[in-house]
Write a structure and sequence with these properties.
Nucleotidyltransferase, domain 5; elongated; 5-stranded mixed β-sheet; alpha/beta
């Protein structure tokens, strides 16, 4: 018998066999659940979606890059430019798209005052999205 034997000495003996019946029952229940649930995951419902003449979503616009070098030279998309000319060129662009992204890459050795002048010129032109580009710090 699987539950032990009736011994005459009265000392209980440990069971030497594992009862696998509950394990088999649980596995069969899980198998049935997965058999029933599997078709639900792959079932598709066909729907006739309405047609609309909505404009297509455009890709994010390529940002304008403003570089400010150590010698205070200013570049807009790799073209040398003055501070007043930068504001003059950005103003019509900002009027057409105030969300036009601008990336500012300034040399780390520059005076804070020079960087602030460029930021002020960009803001006065109407640009509202300005990103400061940095390089990652070296790992030790």
């Amino acid at each position: 018998m699987a539950f032990g034997q009736l011994d005459r000495d009265g000392t209980p003996q440990p069971m030497h066999e594992i009862n696998v019946t509950p394990l088999v029952d649980v596995m069969l229940v899980l198998l049935v659940v997965f058999i029933i649930a599997a078709p639900l995951f792959s079932h598709k419902i066909k729907i006739n979606l309405p047609k609309a003449d909505a404009p297509k979503v455009t890709q994010p616009q390529k940002p304008l890059v403003v570089n400010l070098n150590r010698d205070n030279s200013l570049y807009l998309d790799n073209e040398a430019i003055t501070l007043t000319a930068l504001q003059t060129r950005l103003t019509p662009l900002a009027a057409g798209n105030p969300q036009l992204p601008v990336e500012l890459r300034a040399d780390g050795q520059l005076s804070y005052q020079h960087v602030i002048r460029v930021i002020a010129a960009i803001q006065q032109s109407g640009i509202t999205k300005l990103a400061f580009i940095t390089e990652p710090a070296p790992t030790k």
